Amino acid sequence: MLLNYLCILSVFLHVLTVHSQCRQGCKCSSKVTICVFTQISGVPNNLPTAITALTISGSVSSPNSFGHLSPSAFSSSRMSHLIMRYCGIDAIDAGAFRTLPELKRLNLEFNKIQTLTQQSFQGLTKLTALDLTENRKCDIKPNTFDGLSTLLELRLGEMDLKTFDLNLLQSLHSLATLDLHGNRLKTLDWAVLSSLTNLKHIDLSGNQLTTIPSNMSSLFTQIVTKRGSIHLGNNPWKCNWEIKWLKNMSVSFSSVFSIGNIICDSPANLQYISSISVPDPKLKPILPKILNCDKTKITVNEGMAVFINCTIKGDSITVKWINPTGTSFASSPLQQTGHNVYLNGSLYISSTSSSDLGNWTLSVSSKLGEDQRTVDVNVILSTTTTTTTTKTTTTTTLTPTTITTTPTPTPTITPIKTKTIPTTSSKIVTTKTTPNVTTPTLATNAVMVQDVSTDFTFKWNSAPQNIGSVGYLFLVVCAAIACQLFM
Ligand SMILES: *[C@@H]1O[C@H](CO)[C@@H](O)[C@H](O)[C@H]1NC(C)=O
Ligand SMILES: *[C@@H]1O[C@H](CO)[C@@H](O)[C@H](O)[C@H]1NC(C)=O
Ligand SMILES: *[C@@H]1O[C@H](CO)[C@@H](O)[C@H](O)[C@H]1NC(C)=O
Ligand SMILES: *[C@@H]1O[C@H](CO)[C@@H](O)[C@H](O)[C@H]1NC(C)=O
Ligand SMILES: *[C@@H]1O[C@H](CO)[C@@H](O)[C@H](O)[C@H]1NC(C)=O
Ligand SMILES: *[C@@H]1O[C@H](CO)[C@@H](O)[C@H](O)[C@H]1NC(C)=O
């Protein structure tokens, strides 16, 4: 402990003594050259050739506005750490990091990178950690990470990802940490995920996941064995029998699963309850069942709308309505057929016609079984239609057309909005994003990185300044103690 302090102190004193020979903004010693910048207008020029670490960090309230990183924006045969936060980077040109062969850690959090391709990280053959957290709505093209076979840690949190193709990770054989927190993932390709045999830490918190298939227990057992970590909080977990294995595991290995991790969102009677408090009998399978339909028989005039309001239950169910002639209508997000089937089992026919006349069947099924209910829809065909129909018996070929073109009165029931998924549990875990009032970066955005080489000025916030006067005093006292000890 004491040795540690002494070491830090000696580095500090050393830095102070050699500071004068080093570029402003940098600290140089024989082993390391570290440069730290805050508000600057572009990649700094004249960096020491021996630079080992570079940090450029704007802030939430005043981010930098670098725009795109041009090819070989940096050049150093020794740089191992490159951190650029809040730098307003919106694009990485092909080969931008090609001249940093020793780079191990690349941190690009809180930027605005719009697209990543296979060329973005070209040449980074020693990279072990890549952090892209909070580059929102970034389009990650296939093969983007293909060249990064040494990568151990990949952070893709808070990127508004709705889907994530895990095949992107197929070259990352050593990957130990995968962070996908705070995205909008409803599901993942679990089979691909379980092929990551070196995974030790996974963060899927703050997504829209409802369940994890039980065959993922092999991956989770692997993580548990390595004493890694599994973060699953803030997802709308559906607490049913499918999740029982996960509950069991999180009870047995609570140090790996963060406590209170899996909070139920559904069914309603278990909402907000931690799965570990739910007794096993309550996690029994819910068979598909039609509880009620508000009508068993309905009579309407042709052209009128019909709404059959049903209540159903069941785990992982498929809902369909079958019309009298045997055609199925499934629930779909695009409700534009005029025959809308809702996930909750209800049916809406916007304008009834002769083909709707007869018994409709609601079928609710899952791999556990099926339930059915029949509703008799009696459509009173308007007289004009009947006469047209009889007439068309002579002019045969026109039959279908004449029937469909019969004028339809406006439906009495207004169209129903499609069900929206509640987003209450998609709370974000880490710090908030930059405010919507982005700084007037537009003018500087246009400045390209290489154009900055002429006269750029930057504000050098030296480390001592950041420590503050109390820190200074502390360091002086430490120095005094250290000297005492040496005497
Ligand atoms: C897990 O089960 C699902 C079906 O439930 C299947 O698609 C997937 O391939 C299985 N994954 C593994 C790793 O066995
Ligand atoms: C929970 O897991 C343990 C072993 O991991 C097993 O012995 C036990 O039967 C499981 N309990 C339930 C309820 O699945
Ligand atoms: C459907 O039924 C539920 C309860 O059974 C009710 O709350 C809802 O308002 C009904 N919807 C319509 C459109 O009638
Ligand atoms: C089923 O969903 C429809 C459309 O969102 C809605 O109008 C109806 O009230 C729902 N029925 C029940 C029983 O919740
Ligand atoms: C509908 O089904 C009922 C019995 O469930 C039957 O009596 C009736 O005739 C059927 N209607 C039609 C149009 O087939
Ligand atoms: C920023 O958001 C606030 C409310 O969240 C809104 O009143 C304001 O108009 C927004 N400003 C801009 C520039 O969009």
From TrEMBL:
It is a single-pass membrane protein. One of its GO terms (cellular component) is plasma membrane. The keyword Metal-binding does not apply. Residues 1-20 form the signal peptide. Keywords: Disulfide bond, Leucine-rich repeat, Membrane, Repeat, Signal, Transmembrane, Transmembrane helix. Its main location: membrane. InterPro entries: Ig-like_dom, Ig-like_dom_sf, Ig-like_fold, Ig_I-set, Ig_sub, Leu-rich_rpt, Leu-rich_rpt_typical-subtyp, LRR_dom_sf. Gene3D superfamilies: Immunoglobulins (2.60.40.10), Ribonuclease Inhibitor (3.80.10.10). Residues 288-378 form the Ig-like domain. The keyword Metal-binding does not apply. It is found in: Membrane. It comes from the Eukaryota. PANTHER family: ANTIGEN BSP, PUTATIVE-RELATED, INSULIN LIKE GROWTH FACTOR BINDING PROTEIN ACID LABILE SUBUNIT. This is Ig-like domain-containing protein. It comes from Mytilus edulis. The lineage of its organism: Eukaryota, Metazoa, Spiralia, Lophotrochozoa, Mollusca.
